[in-house]
UniProtKB/TrEMBL annotation:
Function of the protein: Probable oxidoreductase that may play a role as regulator of mitochondrial function.
Entry-linked Gene3D superfamilies: FAD/NAD(P)-binding domain
Protein name: Pyridine nucleotide-disulfide oxidoreductase domain-containing protein 2
GO CC field: cytosol
Domain Amine oxidase: 18-286
Assembly and binders: Interacts with COX5B; this interaction may contribute to localize PYROXD2 to the inner face of the inner mitochondrial membrane.
GO molecular function: oxidoreductase activity
Pfam families: Amino_oxidase
Length: 506
């Protein structure tokens, strides 16, 4: 069979691949995207997840922070990312800690009710003012080649750098906050999608924390109106309009990465191109190319639960559920709880559920059909922490973990959740892996990396300058596994396209 030929082929049709395809097609290149599923978007999709119920919920990823507003504008995406009035709510015995998005008197009063004074809230404000200086230093670099570590560090107080970058973040959290619950609310941003102790010496939790706080310089997580499917829908629209060809149902099973061309094969097709961008995880790419020394297989550690309820449950604290569930609703996430859970999960145990809930429909009801939208129905999305791939090997382990989630939430409710549930779906890391070919169900394709060049690191090629290099000169990463790729950001796609255009121009 004679292989058809293109300028660029992209393996995997996740949201990052669509960003890359748009830039390259706009630059006049002939681009084809090959996606194994019957739709594009990867982990950034909306689906009718609830059987006969007319609701299209974001099935995997659900909030957007890291996609730069400048990227959205440059691509011409017609997207609405809506702010939520509540940043977070954390129920405890006898009350709930409320943090407003625009922090005001209610937030201060809430800290006072929990801790008995204003000291913890003052510490909170000082801490996040310091975090903002690092976010302000990193955010403007995200759409350019990798900055040097010194260029970022020079813009931040040394003490802040030590707290957030040099030392395990658990140390700063324990030194700067006295209350276990407050420590946990701060610390969980370091743990979403990351299986680590807050004191882990690898600092993978610090990198995760930075990614959660740096988006657009504010770290605000906004609700995509219409769900994640709306984000992918817009990306697909602009990619096709630019002239990129998108083929679904095309699983690539082998890649022959030569020095001047790349050829890929699948069932009944063979495609060759001058360049290949890989939108799949580096571990998957290594398997396709047949690398002798593949990277270690990543391991995800989250339990995802999507629930449709007939109405929001009443809270034991007596607080208004429409306020409490509007932001991130933390459950069993005090610092001592997440640390204990991490230690137990590392031993292969799963003693209790810890994680956070979010209600999409309090902010955007457009994902519901007319009948549900007119009712009191709401969607709840649970992201459970420290539920490693290895601990949840099969369907029954996922079911047990789901039961623990219901029990954990019930402890804070004035009524049981189950009678309110109209439909539910849950996914373990193994199920995420099976659905998306994300190895180990790791939501970022692998552990996050610092978004800068390390001391002494000298990039020699455009791919190295943009953080998208592989060991094959004609293959660039354009997915989450790229240097700054984790999350729904489009950054990896943007960087791969710009690296390739730099190569071509050179
Ligand atoms: C449960 C969950 C919750 C998350 N929540 C959030 C969130 O709220 N906000 C956020 O910013 N991020 C979140 N993330 C992370 C985020 O969704 C991902 O980092 C991001 O979507 C990855 O995008 P991507 O385009 O790089 O890759 P992917 O979305 O992984 O897309 C890769 C594509 O490649 C295809 N593919 C794989 N192998 C092949 C092959 N051999 N041939 C052809 N095609 C192939 C796959 O089918 C897939 O479509 C979450 C992820 C998960 C799983």
């Amino acid at each position: 069979m004679a292989a058809e030929s293109h300028d660029v082929l992209i393996v995997g049709g996740g949201h990052n691949a669509l960003v890359a395809a748009t830039y390259l097609a706009r630059a006049g290149l002939d681009v084809v995207v090959l996606e194994r599923l019957d739709h594009v978007g990867g982990a950034a999709v909306s689906t009718p997840s609830f059987g006969g119920h007319d609701a299209r919920l974001s099935r995997f990823s659900y909030l957007v922070s890291l996609m730069p507003d400048a990227l959205i504008e440059e691509l011409g995406l017609d997207l609405e990312l809506r702010s939520r009035p509540t940043a977070s709510y954390t129920p405890y015995d006898g009350g709930g800690l409320l943090v407003e998005t625009d922090e005001g008197e209610a937030t201060r009063a809430s800290f006072r009710a929990l801790t008995g004074s204003d000291a913890e809230h003052d510490a909170w404000q000082r801490f996040y003012a310091d975090v903002a200086t690092l976010a302000d230093a990193v955010a403007p670099t995200l759409l350019g080649p990798l900055p040097h570590i010194g260029d970022v560090r020079d813009k931040v107080e040394m003490a802040t750098w030590t707290d957030l970058v040099d030392e395990p973040i658990g140390r700063a959290i324990e030194r700067r906050f006295a209350n276990d619950l407050v420590r946990g609310v701060v610390g969980t941003d370091a743990l979403i999608g990351t299986f680590a102790s807050l004191h882990d010496r690898s600092l993978v939790q610090n990198r995760c924390f930075l990614y959660h706080l740096v988006g657009n310089g504010t770290g605000e997580w906004r609700v995509p109106v219409g769900g994640m499917g709306a984000v992918t829908g817009e990306l697909e629209r602009v990619a096709r309009a630019a002239g990129a060809e998108i083929r679904t149902g095309c699983e690539v099973t082998a890649v022959d990465a030569g020095d001047d061309r790349v050829t890929v094969r699948g069932d009944g097709f063979e495609v060759t191109a001058g360049w290949m961008l890989s939108g799949v995880a580096p571990y998957v790419l290594a398997g396709l190319v047949g690398d002798r020394t593949p990277p270690p297989k990543p391991s995800g550690a989250q339990l995802k639960v999507n629930v449709l309820v007939s109405r929001l449950p009443r809270l034991r604290s007596g607080d208004d559920p429409a306020v409490a569930f509007a932001g991130t609703f933390h459950v069993n996430e005090s610092m001592s709880q997440v640390e204990a859970l991490h230690a137990a999960a590392s031993r292969g145990e799963a003693p209790f559920a810890s994680g956070e809930l979010y209600c999409h429909t309090l902010t955007d009801r457009s994902i519901l059909g007319p009948e549900l939208a007119a009712s009191d129905a709401q969607t709840l999305t649970w992201f459970g922490l420290h539920a490693p791939y290895e601990n949840l090997p099969d369907e029954s382990a996922g079911e047990a973990a789901y039961r623990q989630f219901v029990e954990a939430l019930d402890a804070h409710l004035a009524e049981p959740l189950e009678p309110l549930i109209l439909a539910v779906e849950h996914k373990t890391p193994a199920q995420v892996e099976a659905a998306l070919n994300m190895p180990g169900g790791h939501i970022f394709h692998g552990d996050l990396q610092w978004p800068w060049l390390e001391e002494g690191e000298k990039p020699h090629t455009p791919a190295e300058r943009w953080g998208v290099a592989t060991s094959h000169p004609r293959v660039l990463l354009c997915g989450s596994g790229a240097r700054r790729g984790g999350a729904v950001s489009g950054l990896a796609g943007h960087h791969a396209a710009h690296a390739l255009l730099d190569f071509i121009e050179a």
